[in-house]
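User: Please work through this fold.
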Amino acid sequence: LRFLKFLRISMPEQFQDMNANVKKGVTMSMILLFLAHLIGCFWNSIRLGNAKINWATPMTSSHELGGTSIDHYVAGIYWAFTTMTTVGYGDIYPQNDQERVYAIFIMLIGATVFGYIVGSVSSLTKDPFNLVALNKKRITAVTAYLKKMHIPKDTRANVRKTVEFSLTHASQYPEGAILKMLPIQVRRAVLVESRRFMLTNINFLRELNEQVVALVLE
């Protein structure tokens, strides 16, 4: 019964942000694929405008590339990714000035966009719950509230430090819901152990009995 109640508890804000991050990562990946599609299509359109000698000529002559539209499309996508990622295997390369100019443009623009997308996706994997942005939002809200209430500057600084410390050590899990599932003695033991770092840094708490501390933490 307690487990079913736990399942009905609303998802914490950071888990909602994680879902948003997953969507953002998928969106960026789709943008990258679409960008490669566009680059590959333009690469093929340049080929069609230079039917005599173009990037496909050496590969077609050596039978490394088929003559169908699908073959050329796949080769164009392949060239787009190898160029954007700066891998450049060299098996597909420009054969005329138009292709060279286009290749230079893609090296500059495509590689920049690719780097931005990969960097953004990497940042999402490092902070899947988006805790950094979420904590900044909370601190900004607290600061704005204190200013509006005309709280003295020194007090605002102390409150900000306290909030930052609390958010830094806050659990990313629905702690309140988990603790409610536990028997009272186990719950108090978990509270004391999970706040051990705080108990060792605050003098008056360090001098209290652990049972009293557990009551305070509850």
User: Anything to note?
Assistant: Residues 13-49 form the longest helix (37 residues). Confidence is low (pLDDT under 50) at residues 1-16. Residues 174-217 form one domain.
